[in-house]
Design goal:
Structural class: mainly alpha
Order of helices and strands: HHHHHHHHHHHHHHHEEHHH
Oligomer: single chain
Shape: globular
Number of domains: 1
Strand content: under 5%
CATH topology: Growth Hormone, Chain: A
Length: 473
């Protein structure tokens, strides 16, 4: 079936400028640092819980409010980047986040800690800024590589896992320089405040003075038009699974290792890093796989691995009791997940998430080349909101069931919902296009058969994009 006749909208030409490499380096370094700041409570939460005598639910809300503020501004941040340029927005964010990072090191109550954790969470919005800024500078035939490299900045989540415990132990609780530099866990946010200011200065000095602004002169309504398409919202749910759950687990796993397996903070942080590294560094590989085999196949692989691994991890410890005729009983088929098996399965989930994140974001500059800021901002915002809702859900599920394994039951349900919606959509679109396409997972190359474009939300007018609409889910 031939593709609908749609004249592609003009796509801005990105020149092969030397400045694009500097943009990528500065954006990636800034994102890595701000991601570390955003998720620092995953490690700091344990000494904070001990100092303030917090419950697990209270502790989960510290992480949750930081994640919330790192999610709600991603859409406006992406739009603003398209309109005024990523250089200005990024420098402002780096300098602004240094203030609450410092204030975290001065707190003396749970209420103030919640407030400052919320404010410092603004750093999480750097993702949509960097995505829009990088894509504006790099030519489309190399955007997959550039965005994959930038997205690997997620590895910043492991920075605190590595340096946090060592710094907490190395700097005395009384601090340095007569208390001018705080000690213990408070030294970490103080150090991050200094690094944020240094990075802002570096971005101002070394990034290109001129900037690409694909949204300059456009109305806000035209930039928001693509958000009416159902496809954008479904991608957002996928991103909740591969990114929101990643954020939640990165913050939750140190506590899980400590509470369930009795590991010290340093060991718990190191093992958590084994989850964070593949979930971050495999993003470029996920982009390459999506280019080679199609993003849809990659998403099937991602969801399949996550369902299998979380399905094992959510099983509680136990055994079967056999009652004998003589009244005696015996225990058979004992079941438990030791720390080695647990780490292996969590590592596999991290690999799947790292690959899946790239598969989700591969579509955005392809389908929405003129609206990467808006679409990428919305997908990133809703995905990050998953990182806000999931830690409290983990805590409440554990309190309700009394089993820490309920964490992975929640993950299993969210992943299953996204996988079912994806498969149902694929099945519906292929049959609507042509019954003989029902067994095809990917559209044919240009010139081949195409499936009918996915309908927009009721009452919406599909936005004109720079590529022909395809059946990629």
């Amino acid at each position: 079936m031939a593709a609908p006749s749609t004249a592609p909208a003009p796509v801005p030409t990105v020149r092969e400028e030397p400045g694009r490499v500097r943009v990528l380096v500065i954006a990636t370094a800034s994102f890595t640092l701000m991601f570390a700041v955003w998720l620092m409570f995953g490690v700091l939460g344990i000494p904070i819980r001990d100092e303030f005598g917090l419950t697990d639910v209270q502790l989960s809300w510290i992480t949750a409010v930081a994640v919330l503020n790192g999610a709600i501004w991603r859409l406006p941040a992406g739009i603003l980047t398209d309109r005024v340029g990523g250089r200005r927005v990024l420098i402002f964010m780096l300098a602004a986040c240094a203030i609450p990072a410092y204030l975290v090191s001065t707190v003396d109550s749970y209420g103030m800690l919640l407030l400052y954790a919320f404010l410092v969470g603004f750093a999480g919005n750097s993702f949509s800024v960097g995505i829009a800024w990088t894509s504006a500078w790099w030519p489309r035939h190399r955007q997959g590589f550039a965005l994959g490299v930038f997205g690997a900045g997620n590895v910043g989540a492991s920075v605190t896992k590595f340096i946090g415990p060592a710094l907490i132990a190395a700097v005395p609780a009384a601090g340095l320089l007569g208390g001018l530099v705080p000690g213990g866990w408070r030294f970490v946010p103080f150090l991050y405040a200094v690094l944020l200011l240094a990075m802002a200065l570096a971005a101002w000095l070394f990034s290109p003075r001129h900037d690409h602004r694909p949204g300059a002169g456009r109305t806000l309504g035209s930039m928001l038009q693509p958000l009416k398409q159902v496809r954008v919202w479904r991608f957002s749910l996928y991103y909740v699974v591969v990114f929101g759950a990643y954020v939640a687990l990165a913050a939750w796993l140190p506590k899980y290792y400590k509470d369930v397996y009795g590991l010290p903070l340093w060991s718990a942080s190191l093992l958590t890093a084994l989850f964070i590294f593949p979930a971050s560094l495999l993003r470029p590989l996920g982009g390459w796989m999506s280019d080679r085999w199609g993003a849809r196949r990659v998403m099937y692989l991602t969801f399949g691995v996550m369902l299998a691994a979380s399905g094992v991890l959510m099983m509680p410890y136990g055994h079967i009791v056999v009652q004998h005729p003589d009244g005696a009983s015996s225990e058979v088929l004992p079941w438990s997940v030791g720390v080695v098996l647990f780490t292996v399965l969590v590592f596999l989930i991290g690999c799947a998430m790292g690959i899946g994140k790239a598969a989700v974001y591969k579509h955005i500059p392809e389908y929405f080349p003129n609206d990467v800021g808006a679409v990428g901002g919305l997908v990133g915002s809703l995905g990050a909101l998953g990182g806000f809702f999931l830690p409290p859900l983990f805590a409440y599920a554990q309190r309700f069931t009394g089993m820490p394994q309920s964490t992975f039951f929640v993950l299993f349900l969210v992943t299953l919902l996204a996988a079912v919606w994806m498969h149902w959509t694929i099945h519906r679109m292929l049959h609507a296009a042509s019954p003989q396409l029902a067994t095809m997972l990917e559209p044919e190359p240009a010139g081949g058969s195409r499936a009918t474009p996915e309908p927009a939300l009721v009452g919406a007018t599909p936005a004109r994009q720079g590529t022909t609409e395809r059946t990629d889910a």
